[in-house]
Specification:
The protein is rod-shaped, with a radius of gyration of 51 Å. Helices cover 39% and strands 22% of the residues. Among the domains are: 39-111; 117-280, Rod shape-determining protein MreC, domain 1 (Thrombin, subunit H). By secondary structure, the protein is an alpha+beta fold. The strands form 2 sheets. It has a 6-stranded antiparallel β-barrel. It has helices at 2-111, 303-326; strands at residues 117-125, 133-136, 149-152, 155-163, 168-172, 179-184, 190-194, 205-210, 222-225, 237-246, 253-259, 268-272.
Length: 342
Amino acid sequence: MNQNQNKGKTGLIILTIICILLIGISVVGSQMMTPVTGITGYVITPIQKGMNSLGSFLSGFSTNMTDAAALREENARLKAQVDTLTEENSKLVLNKEELDRLQDLLSLKEQYSDYDTVGARVISKGAGNWFSSFTIDKGSNDGISVDCNVMAGAGLCGIVTAVGPNWARVRAIIDDNSNVSAMISTTSDTCIIAGNLQLIDQGTISLVKLTDDNNHVHVGDKVVTSSISEKFLPGILIGYISELNNDSNNLTKSGTVNPAVDFKHLQEVLVIRTKKVYVASEADASDPLPASTSTTTLTAPRAEDAAAAANQNAENAEGTQDQEDAQEQPDEAAQQGEGGAE
């Protein structure tokens, strides 16, 4: 019994000593490791901070690269969308402009509803900036023939000079060879609208041989086709007087007219298939020939009548010569084209 108690005490004492030794070692080890830990923290902490900073930078760079790629993709998509919208907008603008022109043409058709008309597109034009002569995409298959009047914008554009099955050539009233018998709508005084490609550069056409004895014609008056015109239907608007001056003979006046048609941007026209039926006056018409014969019979005048006519012609010639002498300055715009005023 005593022996067992002694063994227990001995074991307890040994355990106590071991615990005291461990505590001592722990205290002494902690004091010895403190300098090492400080040095290690001094060296490792900056490196660790640098690594953290590098990691953050790399993480941010990766995120930025991902965002940049997404932005580039979004930018490309938006650019393609802008291009599409721009193209659609251009088409809408063109459609709007074409719609406006066609509405103007429809309004012109309604204004001249008494005439049989057909619309056509301009497919080519002559040299130069102006549509002085051009070709349209309608022809004899559509009822168009030579001398058909052509309108555009707000009024008279020209006249058909040649026709094919599906095309027609038009000479505009601004062409140098064009002369249109016209009149002032307010007074019915007659004049000639003469084509002049040099004058159209100023946006006007030439008005010549205006008979205005009472001085009732003024700037701004409307000029329309005359009822005595051989080829042009009456009452079609040509333009408005922009300038008016007395001629050197003091008998007629000349000036300029702002045309009702934009001869620099023609795209669609309106062709009048109704043609002018011209009846020659008695002074222009000769005695009609019988339908059954092609011969012409000439009758000699009486001597008394011949002498009287000779005297009258001599008096008229003297008066005409006096007027011609007073008119010294030639007017190129008054020169009539082939066949005279139409």
